[in-house]
Amino acid sequence: MYAFLNIFFFVFHSSLIIFNLFGWTWKKTRFANLIVILLTAFSWIILGIWYGFGYCPCTDWHWQVRERLGYLDMPSSYTKFLIDSLTGLDVKEAVVDTLAVTLLALALVASVFTNVRDWKRKRK
To answer: 3-class SS at 79?
Structure first.
């Protein structure tokens, strides 16, 4: 069961990141994208007050699963884990965190812009 959950979280969490970054590009997913980005920011910032900046429940649950599978030395960032796993590199956590925050902020700006533009067009 844990092996399945490990794969599930890898696919789900990676898909969630891709949706955060690019969901604003399709008209049908724009509003959902805005909600998901805001929930991500809420988790990183508000839940981060108690659990540490950048806290993500998906990462927390995935790390619990991986711990059960014997993986004990996991980075605090899922994004670092993903980049390192896909590239074979050991990218510095500060670089990954800066990249993640920057890309999420850019995606938020794009999502707000496209949602507001769509809303204005719909009103006319």
So the answer is: helix
103: amino acid identity, one letter: L
Residues of the chain short of pLDDT 50, as ranges, are none
- Buried b / exposed e across 45-59, counting CB within 10 Å, b at 16+? eebeeeeeebbbeeb
* pTM of model > 0.85: yes
- Number of alpha helices (DSSP H) and beta strands (DSSP E) in the chain: 6, 0
Give pLDDT, residue 92: 96
Of 121, 105, 124, 100, the C-alpha closest to 27 is 121
**If you write DSSP's letter for every residue of 8-31 in order, what string do you get?**
HHHHHHHHHHHHHHHGGGSGGGHH
Instruction: Give me the domain span that covers residue 86.
Output: 2-123
The structure tokens listed for 20 are 């955060």
pLDDT at res. 72: 92
Domain count of the fold of the chain: 1
pLDDT tens digits, 86-120: 999 999 999 999 999 999 999 999 999 999 999 99
d(C-alpha 31, C-alpha 34), whole Å: 5
